Each structure stands twice: as structure tokens, then as C-alpha cells.
Amino acid sequence: MAGRIEQRLAELGITLPAPAAPIANYVPFAVTGNLVVVSGQIPLVDGKVAFTGKVGVDVTPERARDAARLCFVNLLAQLKAAAGDLDRVRRVLRLGGFIAAPAAFTGHAGVMNGASDLAVEVFGDAGRHARTTIGVPSLPADAAVEVEGMFEIG
User: Which of 14, 75, 93, 145 pairs with 44 at a CA distance of 20 to 30 A?
Assistant: First the structure.
């Protein structure tokens, strides 16, 4: 039987993908004590980047928000692999967002809300987190967005 968080994901119409394998010399997550740090996740669907290019040029801010949401889904897949059960998650502590955009773009926070809002939709108050969002000139695989996270488990 699915746990509480898996049931919530089903209610939201979200099926977790298989966790993506690292594309370089790093691990997808690290666990120490009751903390899980998940490496940055890009908006992959079936192994392909679903949102590429620069936000505000190639990708609208609204679609980039969808990309950030997808990045959080991919974070959850890694988190489940790390914790074994998403019901072990006590709190989303921090999310870091990287938005590929030209220097003139200033809507980074709105884009990152795609991930932040989903964290709260899934975990309720335990999904409220600290956050950093920055613009960058490019990301791996020409992804438009990348999101990393830190979680407390019990």
C-alpha cells in the first residue's frame, strides 16, 4: 500500500520516474545523519531534457515554471531512492534553483516557484523551505532550469 506522500502525489497526478543516473563524477544524493542532500536535477522526461534554452528567449517564464516543477519531481525520485520511503521526510529544508537566462531577465523567483509551490503541495507546511534562486548563462545539457535540495528525514 502506498504511503501518505505517495498517495498525495497520485492525487496530484504525479508518477515518480526512475531516478536519473549522474552524468559526471558525482553521486545523485548524499545522506548524513538525518539529512539528505540531492544533487541538482534538470527537467528530464524519459531521459531527455524537456525544456532547453534560455528563459525569456527560448522558453517562456510560464513554461520555465513548469520545468522547475518537473525538476522537483525528479528531486523526489532521488529522495525516495535515498530515504526508501517519502513518508520519512520530515521537512524540505532548502531548495536551490538555477535559471538559464540572459542578463536582462529578472523573473527568476517566479520560475522557481514551480518547484517551491509543488514542495508545499506535496508536504504541506513541512514543504516550506529556505531558498536561493540565481540566473546563470548556461546549464548542463542546455537545460533551462536546474533544482537542488536538502531534506530532513526521520
Answer: 93
pLDDT digits (tens, 9 = 90+) for 45-72: 999 999 999 999 999 999 999 999 999 9
Neighbour count for residue 100 (Cβ, 10 Å): 27
Range of the domain at 11: 4-20+28-153
Residue 145 belongs to domain with CATH number: 3.30.1330.40
Which whole-number Å values give the CA distances from 143 to 34, 92, 152, in the listed order? 30, 24, 27
CA dist list (Å): 101 to 46, 52, 105, 125, 140: 24, 11, 6, 31, 13
Stated pTM of the model: 0.97
Of 43, 30, 35, nearest to 118 by C-alpha is: 43
Residue indicated by cell numbers 559526471: 24
Structural domains in the chain (count): 1
List Cβ neighbours of 71 (8 Å cut-off, separation of 6 or more). 41, 42, 43, 97, 114, 115, 145, 146, 147
Which DSSP category does 140 fall into?
G
Q: How confident is the model at residue 23 (pLDDT cuts 50, 70, 90)?
A: confident
